[in-house]
Amino acid sequence: MDLHPGERIVFDGHPSPRAALSFFAPTFLGIVVISVIVGLVASVGLAIVVFVVLTALMVLAGVIRRAATDYVVSTQRLYIRQGILSKKIQQTRIERVQNVNTSQSVFERVLGVGVVDFDTAGTDDSEFRFVGISDPHTVVAAVDTAQRDAESGADRSSPTTGV
Question: Is residue 72 within 8 Å of residue 9, measured between CB atoms?
């Protein structure tokens, strides 16, 4: 992310490694089912090979997915970048953020991760979410800091009139 003049980063992160477990759990169950079917149809040896290869691919996919997602809160913008080969980039100005909501399912609470959802002015059609954040309240505090910095910067740059 290229910073604008006077812009500084308040939060920079990726989804937590623990968040990948929500991806791994159902995928791992599928791998076990496939391996059992292969073991019943073909051989136990082939089932073990299939299990090891699919598990390795699952772990690799989780690591790549995490590394390929960047979340940034700066004093001027919110920024999400996803992808390695194909990229998806979302950004919005910090002044457009109207509400910041956090949520954690029971499973996410056990893992110690959560989702930070941003409501932005004039954007009903797109989701702006930081998913799998290890401490969602840190992001909320970072957005609050960024908004205060933006407001105080705007106050300094606007002319004041004395009576």
Answer: yes
